[in-house]
Amino acid sequence: xxAETGVPWLLRPAVPRDVEVIAELRATVMxxxxxxxxxxxxxxxxxxxxxxxxxxxxxAIEVDHALAGCVTVRPAEDGxxxxxxxxxxxxxxxxxxxxxxxxxxxxxxxxxxTVRLNVLQGSPARRLYERHGFTPESEDPIDVLMVRQPxxxxxxxxxxxxxxxxxxxxxxx
Length: 173
Known about the structure:
single chain, 173 residues, alpha+beta, globular
């Protein structure tokens, strides 16, 4: 796939060996916002990712055959949770995050799923989410809980056609 800027990228299933690279990416990407909020801790920022890392719900974002980001979309009782959406700083602001998010939201729209996420107060990522239809559901001094309803009205899934009658007798030629 290509972002608006022509950067080739792909989503692939995460594997266990990705966890440390993603933990480092998380620390890099979140540092400024966590420091601004007085919440940055060198160990905790990485450990929270390690503790919640799920290979079955996480996709790695690759650019030029290298891990450049990740995103987790996990099922919840009332839809899906979008978590751990990180993109290497040198790739931010080029349309890649928007392209990845649009791809994921097309999938959740097809499932008719409501999507929720948390974003840190004051994070520039909030503007990305708002451009893709997320709205604030609740806020506290640290986090903004955002929600997005599916955007398309999909018809009900088609019914299976009735089975064709089987020909039990074939006439001789």
